[in-house]
Amino acid sequence: MKIALIYISSLLLMVATVAFTMNWAESPNNLLIGEWEELSWQYEKIDPHPENKSISIGTIDEYQKAEISQELIIHEAERWEFSPSGEIRLHKQNGTVESLWWRIKGRGHILKLIHGTVNEHYQIQKLTANLLEIHFNSDLQTRGIVKMTFRKKQK
Amino acid sequence: MLRKFSNSRSLKENIQLGSLTAFSAGMVNVISVIIFFAFTSNVTGHYAVLAEEIAKGNWYQAAVVFGWILLFFFGSFTSNFIVIHLNRKNKYLAHAIPVIIEIICLLIVGSYIQFSYKETLLETEAMVGLMLFAMGIQNGLTASISNSAVKTTHLTGLTTDLGMLFSMFTLKRFRKRPQLRGKLKLQLSIMFSYMAGGITAGYIYLTIQYNVFYIVCMYLVIVLAYDYSRLRVKRFIYRRPVNMNFSFIRSRKATIKT
What we know:
The complex is a heterodimer of chains A (155) and B (258). With 155 residues, chain A is of the alpha+beta class. Chain A is 23% helix and 41% strand.
């Protein structure tokens, strides 16, 4: 009887700890909702620009950025607006807005963007109330991880 | 395959159990990675992730991962609890109930994805948790009934054992030992079955998607049915000579009376 009590109370304690922590800490879902402004794009490895060889490793010019993001849904998006309904509005440089869907997967570390039948997955490396850092793998001019950093737009 | 316990099990039975359950574990793990982006047949990585999330101060994610580890632990606890408490009453049932629970868990995941899944984070976390519980049950069951010889949901220990075995086989005296050769066969069959399950799941997911869960369930039902049919056949075989003896005794008694 005593052992049963110890087992049940230990189980309840652990379940309560998990439930309390999940309730107390902010879910990545909630943290993501809002408007995010692009701060920077950084690359693990990059080929030098054919005309501008002075650009240092890790940084990128607009030409390379456009080239790399050409195949991506997020192409030329500067502001990302996540809404609670699961919709994301990508505000582009030319003023147009593209609407798609977002989901969070895994333990909250994968951001999935859905555009019709096309899905893209980005790894959420850092997500706080003000800062979002996502990574994705590219095999174009960059070989390795592309790091995108965003700052939350305050209302 | 399921009904024999601990040291009374033969190598053949362990290979059957190991390869069949490893195949289903491989399928479940690959499917969970494809759909949910989380491993569900092993927890070593989750321990590392838990430590990482705590270090980063991501308490929500840490709680989720801790909950997953807890569910795997609880799955193993449940299956062994059932085995040790029911084993004396009905060996087959004691080993079949955990598999039935595993099937129910996977059926819930499969049908939920089919009918209600909206891809929210909470749903993903719950589904992964349920699958980890199912894999905990399977791993606990196979380890329990094979005296820890068969563990099918993760391959860390197995790969370590294989490395050790191959190094031992550099010496002739170890190569000649039937026990070690048997262990090698068992480990290799588990490894290849796990891989085969994973490759199969990854391949068929492209065409049948979430229905893979139903296939895994069907597969586990076949394991249960096969074992049950073997049990029936064995009972039938063992009964026959007894009846023949009785008829023989009866006929002897009849001749004596006359």
